[in-house]
Amino acid sequence: VVRFSEEVSQAVPLRQGVPQGTCLGPFVWCSFVDVLLQELAERCPKVQVLAYVDDLALTCEYEENTKSEAQAQLQHASDIVSDFCKASNVELSPGKCAYTVFQTEFACELDELRLTGSGESLV
Predict the structure, then answer these.
(1) Using the 8-state DSSP alphabet, how is residue 89 labeled?
(2) Tens of pLDDT along 91-108?
(3) What is the pTM for the complete model shown?
(4) Are 30 and 37 in contact (CB under 8 A)?
């Protein structure tokens, strides 16, 4: 329900999510996701978070000898995202979740990262 001056809109039942195309949709989403972004910044200072609309990317630079630290940082950040979504009743889309390793001077693969949603591993 939206109230503006003396006018009140009709109630629109929402089971989940924010209706696409609404004027308040982007504001509601930004307000919601801002809490997650602040938590990630406080608890994972070495992880850079890139957020655009409803997409989120977690990045972490590392040298060959700091691979395990980067792995742990990214896993910790992924766990925070999973826990936040679970507590907020937000479902992650398995088809849109992935991780990629970009390398320059040395060949290196990270061990598997885990991101859980709805009780299943997504990546």
Answers:
(1) T
(2) 888 778 887 777 666 556
(3) 0.70
(4) no
DSSP string, 14-47: -SSS--TT-SSHHHHHHHHHHHHHHHHHHH-TTS
Going from the C-alpha of 92 to that of each of 9, 34, 47, 60, 115, the distances in angstroms are 31, 17, 20, 21, 9
State the CB neighbour count (10 A cutoff) for residue 112: 10
3-state secondary structure at position 62: coil
Within 10 A of 78 (CB to CB), how many other CB atoms are there? 21
The pLDDT of residue 119: 56
3-state secondary structure of 84: helix
* Residue 66 to residue 71: CA distance in whole angstroms: 9
CA distance 61 to 71: 10
Shortest CA distance to 115 belongs to which of 69, 56, 67, 52?
Answer: 56
Q: What DSSP assignment string belongs to 66-80?
A: GHHHHHHHHHHHHHH
